[in-house]
Amino acid sequence: MKFLEEKIFKVIMICAAMIILGVLVYIIATVFYRGLPALTLDMITKLPGGGFYLGKEGGVLNAIVGSLYIILGSLTIAIVISVPLVMYINFYLPARSIFSSLIRFSLDILFGIPSIVYGAFGFALMIFLGIRASLLGGILTVAMLIMPIMMRSFDEITRLLSRDLPDALLSLGSTKYEMVKVILRQLMPGLVTAVLLAIGRGIGDAATVLFTAGYTDNIPASLNQPAATLPLSIFFQLGSPVEEVQNRAYASAIILTVIILILSFAARYFSSKFSKHKI
Amino acid sequence: MRPLRVAKDKTARYLMLGIAVFTILLLLVIGLSLFFKALPIMREKNLWVLLTSANWKPFKGDFGFLPFILSTFYVSLIAIIIALPFSILTSIYLNSYASKNVRRLFEPVVDLLSGIPPIIYGVWGTLTIVPLIANKIAPKFVEFSTGYTVLAGGVVLAVMIIPLLISIMVEVFRSIPKEMIDASLSMGATKWQTVKKVILRKSVSGIIAATVLALSRAFGETMAVLMVCGNITQIPHSVFDACYPLPALIANNYGEMLSMPNYESALMFSAFLLFIIVVLFNGLSRFTLNQIERRYQF
To answer: What pLDDT does B256 receive?
Structure first.
């Protein structure tokens, strides 16, 4: 009897796992199946022409470049803040101090805040600072969104580092600051993983940039101009009643999915590389 | 030479301290600024009325959030009900049964599922789930449904929270001491009996914490749900009714809000509401999960 139960549940569990795997394949297959016919070279090399949203020619280069600008800007801010913070929790504060667990706890909570709330807060902040919907607004808001993601994953990797290296450096008489400079070199693959994860999340999020970055058919030339983003471009094209435009939305979805796939596998590659060198 | 090195170290230390304080303060600043933005409407209307009235007529100055709150709640509930069994079964399978190769195959699957942007889930939902509900499922129960329903939102959301549930639950199961499992197995219990009587019983608090965390993720999910749930202001009476969750309300109305009195404040109120619920849920479950991790670390 108990062996029968064992067998039944094993089958159910395998089914559950297979369904989850199947859904992933289904999602990617759906997007590719619907988008591939409309995916042309024009899509990724041209700006939307006149009447693009009525089915005339053009591409989504504005959104690709806009997303790229926003992610590069916010990434810079996020790295500048995350790296020192993670070093501070791990090497400056004593292990298991109340302050470091307080920081980690607030990171966990910041991580859980929905992107629409970051969007609303970013918008409120922009009104306060007198910024209009622009590249700068998008960069600031997305930076807030990806900061906790980066800090948490970089922190997790940093915690795995053996204490031998820091101890050896300190015993040789280096200051903590000099020690951190050496350790950072060791942690580089981990940082790359964290950065790739953050890019993946930041580039795909629409709710944060909805009111903060605005939308435009051109490539922004300065920080004060609005910037288009890939997810929003998909969203707006989907809203069109013209079928051709909808098909282009699916094609843009392929572009976004491919970017995410590449980022995800690159992150995996770098993190496996890191664990190989772990002492 | 020494003072310069030491001075550098000291400067770096204070800078880092500043950043650390900034990170903790950021949470407070977000909460407070949303609160102050929402204050005008809370001053004008009774908080209880705001939360329990179903009367939403911004033009007349009536702001009842009940339809949106209930929509958010229903969609998230359906998502959890669908996602939980799949996640628990899969995590048990990965933890106790699967070979190393299967586990290695599943890591990128979970990663990818959590990495796919909400907008892609939305596209997938509109292309597959919505027509499925409109043409196949709904006609068996109700006369007519567009497919843009509570159920569609719940299904799409379920897929989105499954990776979060799995990754936390695998951690929770892993934190159970191996001796306990070995003891059960050596007494002649089958693997499933061990899972049932030892692993699951030991991880109840962890599973609850993971569920609460996933629930709070579900509350805040915007774009994917917005694209499949219909966005009609009403209290949904069945899973085949359209609904209008809070995040969708914010996302849809933000641009045009400034012309109406109190409208901006009302939207900020919903953002504040989301913030409070999510922080509360997140705080509780993270605290529980940290406790679990600590208990088994030594």
So the answer is: 62
**E strands of A20-157, at which residues?**
none
Separation CA B56–CA B270 (nearest Å): 13
Would you call B280 an interface residue with chain A, using a CB distance cutoff of 8 Å? no
- Residues B46-92 have pLDDT tens digits of 888 888 888 888 777 788 889 999 999 999 999 999 999 999 999 99
Secondary structure (DSSP) of A170-221: HHTT--HHHHHHHHHHHTHHHHHHHHHHHHHHHHH--TTHHHHT---SS---
Same domain (yes/no): A87, A151: yes
Count: domains in chain A: 2
Domain that holds residue A10: 2-38
Is there a contact between A16 and B90 if contact means CB atoms under 8 Å apart?
yes
Length of chain A, in residues:
279
Q: Say yes or no: A96 and A32 in one domain.
A: no
In B185-244, the residues whose Cβ lies within 8 Å of chain A are 190-193, 195, 213, 216-217, 219-223, 227
Task: Indicate whether A18 and A80 sit together in one domain.
Answer: no
The secondary structure of B83-149 as a DSSP string is HHHHHHHHHHIIIII--HHHHHHHHHHHHHHHHS-HHHHHHHIIIIIHHHIIIIIGGGTSS---S-S
* Residue B259 lies inside a defined structural domain of this protein: yes
Containing domain of residue B126, as a range? 51-295
Between CA B265 and CA B42 the distance in angstroms is 9
The mean pLDDT value for A208-212 works out to 87
- Tokens found for residue A192: 């790359």
In contact, A42 and A57? CB cutoff 8 Å? yes
pLDDT at position B55 = 81
> Mean of the pLDDT values across residues B251-277?
81
Nearest-CA residue of chain B relative to A9? B192
Question: pTM here?
Answer: 0.90
How wide is the angle at C-alpha B227 spanned by C-alphas B226 and B230, nearest 5°? 75
> What's the complex ipTM?
0.90
Look at B126 and A238 and tell me if their CB atoms are within 8 Å: yes
Say how many C-beta atoms besides its own lie within 10 A of residue B128's C-beta: 17
Gyration radius of chain A's alpha carbons:
23
